[in-house]
Amino acid sequence: MKKKLIYEAVKKFNSLGHECNLEISDKLGMSELQVNQLHYLKIIDRTDDMTFGKFAEILKVTKPSVTEIVNKLIKLNVVKKKQCTWDKRIFYIKLTEKGRNIARLPFLAEQKVVDIIAGVLDDEEIDTFIKIIKKL
Amino acid sequence: MKKKLIYEAVKKFNSLGHECNLEISDKLGMSELQVNQLHYLKIIDRTDDMTFGKFAEILKVTKPSVTEIVNKLIKLNVVKKKQCTWDKRIFYIKLTEKGRNIARLPFLAEQKVVDIIAGVLDDEEIDTFIKIIKKL
DNA sequence: AAACGTTAGTTTTAATTGAACTAATATAAA
DNA sequence: TTTATATTAGTTCAATTAAAACTAACGTTT
After folding, report:
1. What are the residue boundaries of the HTH marR-type domain, all occurrences included (chains A, B) (predicted)?
2. A96 & A109 share domain
3. Model confidence over A34-67: pLDDT tens digits?
């Protein structure tokens, strides 16, 4: 049956993605982070001007908990505090370069897959590939 | 640049996989399980005749801990005990249907993607798709 | 007696919290 | 303008809670 062959192709494509994922996450030293911490980074990444209070609300925990959580993330070099210029009580929680890369790992991995595709296929194959995927 | 289009295609294909993943994991009620428990299921799935002692060795914990771990998995309906026929001291740890499905979610999701591909593309497109993926 | 798993109770560890605290700001009366 | 008062943002710290794993003792089967 044809499905067997399709399955092999799907599996191969996914494996390619997984390998890129693994390679990048290794390079970023991502294995030191817990699943929760990864989740935190994503929330911080997509929230403008994240403060401790805002973060506490989002996570539905108290502010001391946020202090604890953020301190751990700072120790891991994935987050930094940035004091607000006009109100010095306020500290923004910002991702470091490392933190941002980790938060956007799926995107980076996809980029890598794109590079592989662009490097291996010729122009006509690329057009065909894009056209076929578009139909799904 | 062509990469933009390739990226869109890669992203779309991955999204398709993620959606299938999500749909199945929802249907299986997988969100009740912790990450560790998912890990346990995978270990149980790939180990023949898993006993409490063997599981304790693999996880490098004591047998009472395994008892507790397994009891929790039983409560979640993903695992069951099966007494050995010829030696009634021994209990095997077996996945339930639900547990097996959860352990093999990535496979199931890939199957679903395959079905979608088989349903949408015609024979020629499928051949092309397979041929292109093979080159990666 | 030895092997397999369970039960009961303890230890350990991490996460969370409430309460008190510092620092910065806002408000408004003197 | 200055000064007193209250409020807000985040921190520190001690205490609690909850989960995970352990030891020791036990029942059952071989």
Report:
1. 1-136
2. no
3. 999 999 999 999 999 999 999 999 999 999 999 9
